[in-house]
Specification:
Length: 100
């Protein structure tokens, strides 16, 4: 999967970068740097994992931008995979929403 070079999150443009060996002590696959308007994704991930990780980091950014600096990581993980599956499993509905 080719990642976009940027994503808009609540009107804020985030640069998306693929970075080799991003994993740190927390074993992170991605990182949202909200102050820098940058999202980093581990370049070694497979396509589905890249998509899920970008969505995961976007959810972090949404929460940060709406004043929820502290949030529970398992909730973000559940929302990331859950929303990705929802979009993929309901393409017709998603397209209808986009067309409105
Ligand atoms: Zn996270």
């Amino acid at each position: 999967m080719t990642l976009p070079s940027s994503v808009l999150v609540g009107g804020v443009k985030y640069e998306v970068q693929e970075v080799s060996r991003l994993r740190d002590k927390k074993d992170s696959l991605g990182r949202a740097q909200c102050h820098r308007q940058r999202i980093k994704i581990d370049s070694g991930l497979g396509g589905d994992a890249k998509a899920a990780t970008l969505l995961h980091e976007v959810i972090h950014a949404i929460l940060y931008q709406t004043g929820h600096d502290e949030h529970v990581e398992p909730h973000i993980r559940a929302l990331g995979y859950g929303l990705l599956a929802l979009m993929r499993d309901n393409e017709e509905w998603i397209r209808a929403v986009l067309d409105e």
